[in-house]
Amino acid sequence: MFTIGYATKPIATYIEQLQQHGVTVVADVRSVPYSKVFFDYHQEALRQHLQQAGLRYVYLGDELGPRSKDPAHYDNSQQVQFDRLMQAPLYKSGVQRLFDGVDKGFCIAMTCACKDPAICHRSLLVGWSLMHHYDCELQHITHDGALESQSALEQRLMTLTDTVPDLLAGEAAALQLAYQQQCRACAYRRHS
Q1: Rounded distance, CA 82 to CA 180, Å?
Q2: CATH number, domain containing residue 109
Q3: CB of 84 within 8 A of CB of 73?
Q4: 36 pLDDT exceeds 90?
Q5: Which domain holds residue 7?
Q6: 26 lies in a domain?
Q7: Which terminal residue of the chain has fewer beta carbons within 10 Å of its beta carbon, N or C?
Q8: What is the count of structural domains for the chain?
Q9: What is the pLDDT of residues 106-159, one digit of tens each?
């Protein structure tokens, strides 16, 4: 399984990168499947572009999106808590849909808008939960089309957050701290 962010990519480049990595299905994991600027990535337009390229489209934003409709998934500051979201039956059913698709022989790429997966729920929610709860490692298609594994991305989180293992916090504890810090910086926050 892969992830890909469209950011400022022309739709032709986006499709080229998907095909380069053998993707056959795009799972849209945006809570709101529209772009304010890039109209090729509106849900209907994206579905049509993919279909013309021989790729399938499925919407999984309700299950795997970064925004929850359940108030229990938010803290007092109204920021979504990915650890709570990962435990939700709806989220788990979305993960199961991914695995069902892979079992049927599909090569799936989850898509969202963010250019860098390190600031996106593709890695902080879905990638983290797949790696740490399901023993499945995602490959993130970077903006230039290269691959970054979830493991490499998690190491990069420690650099991004300036978190280093020391005598009190070993590698695993430092990674957890870096992850929590990145979630606080990047996770969706509802506006009152």
Answers
A1: 10
A2: 3.90.190
A3: yes
A4: no
A5: 2-149
A6: yes
A7: C
A8: 1
A9: 999 999 999 999 999 999 999 999 999 999 999 999 999 999 999 999 999 999
* pLDDT tens column, 156-187: 999 999 998 887 778 899 999 999 999 999 99
* Separation of alpha carbons 149 and 139, rounded Å: 4
Give a yes or no: residue 41 inside a domain.
yes
pLDDT over 80 at 104, yes or no: yes
Flag whether 77 is in a domain: yes
Considering only CA atoms, which of 132, 188, 181 is closest in space to residue 160? 181
Residue 88 is assigned to a structural domain of this protein: yes
HSE of 167, CA atoms in CB hemisphere, 13 A: 0
